[in-house]
Structure formats: structure tokens, C-alpha cells
Amino acid sequence: MAAMNHPKIGAPRRPAPRRGSIRCDSVRGSRVANFLNLRKIFSGSSETTKASGKAPGIFPVSEETAEVIRQINKNEYVNEEGRVAWSSSREYIEVKDPKKEKGFNNFEKTKMKKNPMVLTMENFREWAKVPFAELDTKENAEDIDIRLKWFGLFHRRKQQYGKFMMRLKLPNGVVTSDQLRVLAQITEEAGEGGCGDITTRQNFQLRGITLQDVPDIFDRLEGCGLTTIQSGMDNVRNAVGSPIAGIDPLEIVDTIPVCNDLTEYVIDFGKMNERIANLPRKWNVCVVGSHDLYEHPHINDLAYMPATKNGEFGYNLLVGGFFSATKCEEAIPLDAFVPERHVIHACDSILTTFRDFGARSSRQKCRMMWLIKDMGLENFRDEVAKRMPGGALQTEGDSLVDESHQRRDYHGVHAQRQQGLNYVGINVPAGRIQAKDMFEVARIAEEYGSGEVRLTVEQNYIIPNVPDAKVGSLLAEPLLTTGKGFAAAFRPNPGRLVKDLVSCTGNQFCALALIETKATGKALAEALEATVDMSRDVRMHWTGCTNTCGQVQVADIGFLGCQTKNPDGSKGNVDGVKVFLGGNIGHDASLGKEVAKVACSELLPYTQGLLVEKFGAKIKSEGDITEEGRAALKKWEDFPFNSGGGPSVFPANGNGEYVKQ
After folding, report:
1. Nearest-5° Cα angle at 649, 644 to 652
2. What is the pTM of this model?
3. Is 451 annotated in the active site?
């Protein structure tokens, strides 16, 4: 594994590139491989890409770790008693006998028809030449709507026909100013339909992408050390770590190198890892680096918890945490300790066990916890142990995580472990970002910090490495104060409700969502802050459907989109939410329970009552409501409930603004 070195501070800045075609000069070089480095195309080619002239792969890993990854990914073992086997061409893993699979789901049938890994860059180049309406035939539908997700491209057929959401791989949520400018320009070039989101996995999703632009976008991403490979469907999602890794005065371990190592293993140096690219379902991993549990380990399929055993540093393992439409479960201890040098081995052993034995039937019963329960935890552990070096797993070690620690708020200015430097957490309301503010955050990070930006799982930014002498000027920047000239202000000291507001995409862009979430959540939080006095922060999460991408079950108050009876008694249903209470994160992690179903138009008085009863809030008198507060109330009163969402009502570039109906 990579050594636990801290990132260099105060790296020399490069002048900002001109607007035009922004590319990362820092990683330019001879072109060795393109984005879709499939084994069949690049057999025998160098692993070095433009992103790293010395180290293999896209993200920085040591040569020692790279060799570990090579050896692990050469292992073609598949348990013959499992559900899958290598294809006849040995290019990918496939289900052995679909006829024996009870309730074989449609996504598995699609993968059996044509494995996504047979798609090549030449496919993209040819598709880019064809008008989308001509390309969108019945024959191509499964490629467009399903297989492209293996490459981070999600067609928004209902809300943005012919346009795609693009999801990255961004280990530990770390991005440079140069990279952020490239992403900003891609978003800007998408026009009125373009915007971005910070996700609950420390990642970016960009919207409004067309297939015509994809070959050039992939080229530009590769040129700046980014990729979208294996970021969707039945793959490992973004590796999450501490957002203040390497700079935290109370840090246990720097998670950035570990997340980089895990990501390069997962994507096999950007070549698409055919060994683990056909999982039964998506799979989440995190590495805990602080006592605060910023990484939310209890809702991950695999969480590495810092520990020691016999004087050796390593990790205890939690397994099986997940959310789904029908069930949500917290991760449980595997009773396993892995030394640091075996972190990737443990990930591979658990993943390939899931790959070999996981159900391929109902999509709601294909997550790894279902397999753990079907096999029994002890049998699952035994199968994992057989795949580890030496064929064994050590029992759990001594945890290094202080369970009495109170989680720190990362918003605002905080001293780093490096003397004279600070990190500044800034709030991004509901995680929505625009090209203009992306350019601005890149500039601010470069001018006041070291040209680096961190993302959090609460959909916010952290700017590290700000010298004491520059803090005041940073805090006076328009984006961080009034937000004038931008779609929203990104304040370092936001209100107690907006601060921790988390939201899925909602039916502005997602066909599964039953309600609009980002604008609704922001408008409600602002109206509540206008009308109640709070003595504590309250975490409010919104999600548009039962898939709960907005993680409502871990919120203080969660809002899950539904349809409910019209409160005025007339026939028909209206937009509503199922309200969840009692969720928690950190050392007292727990999942909330549904307590009510409320029409969205009735949420202001209902939630005011909850805040007073459950969270110690007090209703403001009429005279205590400010002009800004009255504007927030007016916005809520005028809100276009029951509009069906979509960009025509909630413009992509609006950040909570709407078109009056």
C-alpha cells in the first residue's frame, strides 16, 4: 500500500488557462491510451497515461502498490460453485446458466445479450457523427439507456431527451483547480441544459452532455487526469474518504492514498476491470480517516475502520450497509482485521465473493447484504478468507476511532495540522453547481489556497491550505457573501437548516423521482429559517423516490417523494412526501422511521411544528422576520407544486429558481 504521506502544501501555482478549449497543461505528454482502454484493444500496451508520466494509471499510486494491483487483477479465479464464469472469449465475466436463475432480472438479460465492455471508442466516434434521433432506434436502445452507464453516461430520456448525465470517478473527492476548469467548460458548453451536482459520494455529475461531444470530452478528461469509467450500473462507486485528509489536526490516517489505490484497482489503471465490472448490483466503499466519521461508514458495502493489531496498523472491516427501495440496513462487523498492505486484497476478496455468489434476480434483493444473510455471516467470511493471502483473515483488531468524539462542523474556517494554514468549508445549497461558480471556485482555490478543492458527502466544498493572512480576503469574495453575479451564494457560515441540506436530483432530471427535490428542499429550508429560531443544526434530506439516493433514512428529518391525497379534499393526488424522523450519522448511527405523509404544499407549518416539538425551535414573531425572510416566504407561497418538474419549470441553470406556472 502507499505510504501515509501528507499532500504537499503550497505547490507553485500555474497561471489560469484562457477560456477557449481548456485542457490541463500539467499532464500533457505523448498519448499512449485513450479513455476506453479495454484489454482486447490495449493488450500489452503501457499502463502509463497522460495523467501520470511516471506512475501507472490515472490517479497517483506507488510502484509497489501498482504491482500489487497487477498481480490481483491477473487472478482469474471464479468459484465454480458460483453463478458466474468467464465468457468463452475470456474477455469478461457472465452468468453461467441464465435458465437456472430464478427471476433473472432484465438488466442481467441485457448484459447477457451484449456485454458493455465490447463497446469501444470507435463506437463513440461513429455515434458522434449521427444525429441522435437517427441513432435512437430500438436496436440501439439498450446501448444508449443501459450499457453506456458503464462509461459514466446516463441518458435522461424523459427530462432531457438526447442528453446525458456524466458521472466521474473522483477518489476521496479531491479535484484540482485545473481539473475543475475543464469540468466547468464542459458544463458551460452544454448550454442552457448544462449544470452539475456534487453527489453524496464526494463526486461530480455533469448534465446536458450530448453523444456528439463525448469523444472530445473523454479526451479532455484523460488529459487532466480524470475518468468516468465504471462509475455507473453494476460497478464499484466512488471511493469515499475524509474530506480533510492530510490536513486534519486530529487525523487517524490520510485516506487519499488509500482511495487512490482502491480506485486504480477497481478500474485496472483505467482499462476497465473486466474481473469486477459485472457485479450483481452497485457496491460502495469508504475509508475512515477521522474520529468524525465524515465518510458515513455504516451505509457502505465495505468500510475500512482504522485499527491496530499486535502493533501493526490496519483496518477493521464493516460490511453490508445499503439503501434500496424496499430495505435499508446498516453495515455490520465482519470480525476481520486487515493490515495496511492487504487493503486491496480484502476489497478484491469481498468483491469477487459478491460477484460469484450474489443474486441476479430481483434488483431490490441483489445488494451484498442480501448475500451475507443468505450465506450467513460466518460462511461469507470463510469464503472471503479463502481468497486472501495465506487463505486466512485475522479477527478484529483494536479500533483507533474514538467513539466518544463529537463530530466537528467543517463549515467555516478551521486551523490545519500545518501551522499557519486553514481549511474553509463552504455550503453549496442542495449540491447544485453551475459553470460560472465552478470557474470561480477554481480561481478562489488557486488564489487563496494551493489550487485544490475537496468535496464532501453532504454535497459541499472545502478549500484547503489557505494561509492565515489570506483568510479575510477569501471570506469577502462575492461568491461566499452575497452571491451577486452567481446562481447562489456559497456561504461558509450558512443557516442551521440550509447548512446540512442534502438532496437527490428529483424529477427535474430523474425519471424515477415522483417530486422535485432540490428547489423544494432549498425553498422550504429558507422559509423555515425565516420563521423559526434554531439553537442547533438540523439535517434535512430529500429524495424523489424509494431508491433514496438522498439518504433520507440517516437525516434528522427526511422527506421521501410520493403522491398523496389533495389536502383541500378534492379528487386526485398531489405531490407529497413521506416524512422520516430519528436518523443519525456518526458513532450513534441509526436509520429513521416513517412517521407521516404530507402534501408538499403543507410542509411549512408541518415542519415548523416538528422543529418546535422535536428540536427545540421557537417560532419568530411577525416583527422579527427580516426582509430577506419575507422574500423566502413569498417564494414558498408561489412555489410551483405539482408541476411535474423538468427543466422547463426548474431551469438547469437556476439553482432553485423556477418558472411561474
Report:
1. 115
2. 0.92
3. no
